[in-house]
Amino acid sequence: MAAINVNGKALETDAAPDTPLLWVLRDHLGLTGTKFGCGAALCGACTVHIDGEPARSCQVALADVGTRRITTIEGLSADRSHAVQKAWLELDVPQCGYCQSGQLMSAAALLAQNPSPTDADIDTAMAGNICRCGTYNRIRKAVHRAAELLKKENA
Amino acid sequence: MNAEVNSLTHNTRRDFLKLGVLAGGGLVLGIGLSGCSKPAAIGAGGQPVAWLRIAGDNTITVLVDKSEMGQGVYTALTQLLAEELGVALEAIRVEAAPVGAVYTNNLLGAQITGGSTSVRDGWEKLRKAGAQARSMLVQAAAAQWGVGADTLKVDSGAVVNGRKRLTFGELAEAAAKLPVPTEVTLKSAKEFTLVGKPAKRVDTASKLDGTAIYGIDVKLPGMLHGAFAQCPTLGGTLAGFDAVQAKTMPGVKDVVGTDNGVVVIADHYWQAYKALGAVKIKWDAGANASLDNDAIRARLRKAATRNGRSVRNDGNAAAALKGAAKVVRATYELPMLAHATLEPQCCTADVRADSADVYAPTQTQTIAQATAAAVAGLKPEQVKIHTTLLGGGFGRRLEVDFIGAAMVASKAVGKPVKVIWSREQDMTHDTYRPPAFDTVAGGLDASGKLVAWKLDLTGPSITARMFPPVVETAIDPFAIEAASNYPYDVPHIAVNYNREEIGIDVGYWRSVSHALNCFVAESFMDELASAAGKDPYAFRAAMLDKQPRFKRVLDEAASRAGWGKAPAGHYQGIALMEGYGTYMAQVAEVSMKDGTLTIHRITCAVDCGQMVNPNIVDQQIEGSILFGLTAALWGDITLVRGEVQQRNFDSYRMLRLPEVPRIDVHLLESSEAPGGVGEPGTAVVGPALANAIFAATRKRLRSLPIAKQGIITV
Predict the structure, then answer these.
(1) Which of B196, B221, B298, B529 has the least C-beta neighbours within 10 A?
(2) Do residues B364 and B12 make contact, with C-beta atoms less than 8 angstroms apart?
């Protein structure tokens, strides 16, 4: 059994050490909000935070996680109250929604680093997240809106 | 799927089409307990209707018959019902409907989500169901109060009599005992309070916290996981396999063969995926062992020399071309494309001796049910289809090829099994958008007026495989869209269609033949305008006096885009189309620097008739434009020895945020019948963009993708 810290909880898993974090989360821990899209770090659907940094969970083996703290979409907030979730809801961003867990995790990580991102900053930070439905312009608007909400929260 | 199953599926599809003919005549009643609809929706104190349940605690549940794949049907169809029922959208919860004849899509003849038909099919049905339920609730209240039903009003989920109120929940049990009224009066457009309003989607919240359940997320007690490998050669089969080593690997429970693949079943997906790599598989490549793009192109090119079947014939185009002062001819070739839904194909099956449950992200419940039953050796009515959310559809999930392996696997191990395709399996085993080889000619008179237009289409038929009876006598209607309805006022018009199969299955891909034919027709209109020395917008507008809806969107798009007034160094291209009852024009604005393309803006004007939810229409138009843009820039599926060369998003490129241009969508007020909005945008953006590139470079793009035409797309 390996110890793993997910969404603030100390958990244990019997997954083999080479199992990608994505499948540990989905199959072993039942956290299916993190999505499988490509298995090759090309689409961003599996984005989680590892010690606050965005990471493609399909490319991180369980053995390499160690004691680092994992945050998934389920742990971004307890009640959809993170600024990116509020902004996404306000602007009705998702269509099929399959990529949106990854989009939200990338956006949340961006805003944690850069509270006032420009369009170019957003483009750079979000370029690894594919949305096949084409919600991109709403995503860009929603990141700006989330930045505003965060400023109000911190004011 | 083996040949037997294939033929079963085809026969089942035949039956659907017969049913469709009947259903198309309006015999399907969207509510109530008619002979063919199971009273599946009855609950204690509930409402005996196929479309909604009202429980005593005021929980109102709408059973949506169409699959939610991002296009907003859970919201828009619920809005239609809520409008007539008299409740707020937020007061309703949505559930996926089971399989049932009552849910037959009248436009397609089976329970299918596709062809941008959802609102068009549901427009009457769901409003009528809401009105019928409302009438029953009002009658129940009238009986309870001993007053006339016509003295009562409905307000936010309650029937009101002066200051007295009875909630729908309080009335549900009594209402359920009343006969379903056959005649109800529906609101006029002027009375709408919900329909036409940009309501927020009902499914957004669950897509922001990981609680939305897609096909890939299904969890059942005791469920095992399957990884699937199919013959790399399209159409090839499984010749044999050696799983001795794989079966020794951790978690592996079994390894089973299907007709064209191998499933490894394990406790967890990663175990199954790893063990799949250890199975020694022998494939029979079959007839496509040497198939490649050159062979397909040669086949289409040769077929194009035949005289096709006539789709449309106004006047005498051949003679008019001979007599024209100037004749322009061109050949267009378009590539195959993958759907590439972000959720890979997947299915969970729980097969038992005499029944089965199938959890599938499907666009076609009836065919999914028939297929699952055939594979498991069950009757369709023994198979329950649970429709999950779809992580993208775009036509891919009209196929049922992702169901068989889960059925075989579950049956073999006697437990529920979830089979997930890898991205590589998904990309290399799609049913691709058909390629096309089209020739087109136009004749101008001495004044530059277009007097003759002739289009000859050549390509394989999707419908011939999917719904064979349709093409027994008629031309595949999904091969000639945006060609047969060529809108311009030209005296001599001929459209012909040459069906030529290419050895692999092709599939319905967002906007289907619109994306092929609109590219050809609207690119060529630009060629004609150029040959006539006329402005592309003015050239089109002059031929649309008899087509006010086309003219309106063309004028609107041109005006909103500032046609002819682009900044220095920017160039514009324009295109238009009618598809799915929706009229649309787009203007693309681009610039070129050192051979590199920059797309600055796409302006789109849309007349889609009466809108149900402009918020969703806006989403769909913008998303469909970007879907078409991705294809126009980079989409190209290539074959070598019958194997698809594109395996993941590195070789099959998707548009990403930094590449997304400004999109301006202008939705025009219209009282016409609702049109479909999920698809037309995809078809129009390609020619608008190619025409803008011509304006910038004088280089005419007669094949796609743009990135393979000597243009750098970064």
Answers:
(1) B221
(2) no
Is there a single domain that holds both residue A114 and residue A96? yes
Q: Domain range holding A90?
A: 83-154
> Do A37 and A55 fall into the same domain?
yes
CATH code of the domain in which A52 resides: 3.10.20.30
ipTM over 0.95: yes
Cα–Cα dist B62/B59, whole Å: 10
Written in H, E and C, the secondary structure of A3-49 is EEEECCEEEEECCCCCCEHHHHHHHHCCCCCCCCCCCCCCCCCCEEE
Taking CA–CA distances from B224, the nearest residue in chain A reads: A27
At A134 the pLDDT is 98
Nearest to B484 by CA among B493, B471, B473, B474: B493
pLDDT digits (tens, 9 = 90+) for A143-152: 999 999 999 9
Assess whether A71 and A128 both reside in one domain: no
A90 lies in the same domain as A119: yes
Distance (Å, whole) CA B626 – CA B708: 19
A39 alpha-carbon distance from chain centroid: 16
**Ranges in chain B, pLDDT < 50:** 1-48
The pLDDT assigned to B50 comes to: 84
For chain A, what is the domain count? 2
Q: Collect all residues of chain A within an 8 Å Cβ-Cβ radius of residue B626.
A: 134, 136
pLDDT at B7: 38
Per-residue pLDDT at B179: 87
Q: Are residues A93 and A36 in the same domain?
A: no
Section A103-117 average pLDDT: 98
Indicate yes or no: CB of A139 within 8 angstroms of CB of B657. Answer: yes
Residues A12 and A46 in one domain: yes
